[in-house]
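Quick log. Single chain, no ligands specified.
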Amino acid sequence: TPGPAGLSPAEAVDRLVRDGPNALPRAGRRSTFHIAFEVVQEPMFALLLAGGMAYLLLGDLTEALILLAFASFSVVVTVVQETRTERVLEALRDLSAPSALVVRGGERLRIPGREVVCGDLLVLEQGDRIAADGRLLSADDLQADESLLTGESLAVGKAVQADAPSADHRPGGEDQPYVYSG
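-> predicted structure:
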């Protein structure tokens, strides 16, 4: 259990290794080869290839080559666009990841939100995004926007409760001693 000094840096590293990062699981990133394989399996591409083969069988080499060239061009453009989209989405995920101010070893440290571990003492300041779910130990007129959780458009006040249960509580709401990620 962390004291006022928070977790020691060594304990935080141990918990990060044991429990993993504070992040939702991500779908694996698709390679360029995988994207190309998906594009080639699309029915429209198969139809273009079949049309090109039909022109070849009918003896019209020019039409067949034009159709196959356009089909190949379509594959290249789709693969390039999908690869760029993958990179942009990854960059947006990194950009939108909150950072957290934690107390570790008696010092305040700014760390990436994915490195927050169970037992860390989070220090919340005005305008911060909450990096992990937690229970309040102390607060001064704290309000949190829980609209994503509850649908309420107004911020709700949070209050410290000494006897707050660690389980079986309702998520979100006024005068609750809990804060939620995001």
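The chain has a mean pLDDT of 80.
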